[in-house]
Amino acid sequence: MTDSSDSVSIDMETFALGGKEYLVRTHHGTVSVAVFGDQDKPALVTYPDLALNHTSCFQGLFSCPEASSLLLHNFCIYHINPPGHELGAAPIGPDDLMPSVDDLADQIVEVLNFFGLGAVMCMGVTAGAYILTLFAMKYRQRVLGLILVSPLCRAPSWTEWLLNKVMSNLLYFYGMCGVVKELLLKRYFSKEVRGGVRVPETDVVQACRRLLDERESKNIWQFLEAMNGRPDLSEGLRKLHCRSLIFVGENSPFHSEALHMTSKLDRRYSALVEVQACGSMVTEEQPHAMLIPIEYFLTGYGLYRATLSVSPRSPLSPCCISPELLSPESMGLKLKPIKTRISMEV
Q: Transmembrane stretches, by residue range (predicted)?
């Protein structure tokens, strides 16, 4: 890790024992980075969705024992939180410049430089998936692979833009009110887990609702404004030659976005996993559905579960994409390149 008088680290008391939170000052504001694992191992960088942090967006996945034997065995995890999204964050000052999505992507490379990291594996959810995809397009030599959950790649549609503007105005004038929380929960989760009149909310939704109450509304507002002004990345996706694994819940409001993104990526390096009866946040709603596809994805980099006698300090130099990654039968899941899916539906 590089020395810097502009950066400070503090011990972390939540999410997992042995973790540490670093507050890294960048040219576009301070970023909270929670680090878990042996920093001599290859790096896995995560970025959460709007109004979430690493606890509320990735805890379901990383708390699975199978994920621990696969991910924590092979990687040191660097959870990057959007500015002001960490637990206990203070409101962003009125004099602080509002970052654009380009600024947020540039923050990531400053974080990597602070920790002395080279090329990294990336995992992001929805808005976080967009930021990491933009980062991969701007800094191709710093990204080994992308694991994206319900990703965005196009500019907002008029429907999304209008909905975001409604949320933005409510956040600015009323804070994290009931309407904003309901809109966010619909963004994250399927109707099955959100419950209804006769069916109660599941524990994961209740926990997320409580965590939303702790968010600073002005900080969320800034991230939402940045995402509502995002440009379309579609044309540059074909030039992205790092391997990409995309998950999307079939009930996600961003399902069509994930299909569009998969159609624009080079089919030799990408695959799509559609998770049935699930919303956008597969990492929390159905994390076990991610484990087998991720395991096959990582075998192309020479990474395996802890039970296998393979060194976790792999140089991570991937060869061409393995045939197993594109084989639905071997995955035991609905895994298909997008053109295959369309031809089946016609």
A: 114-136
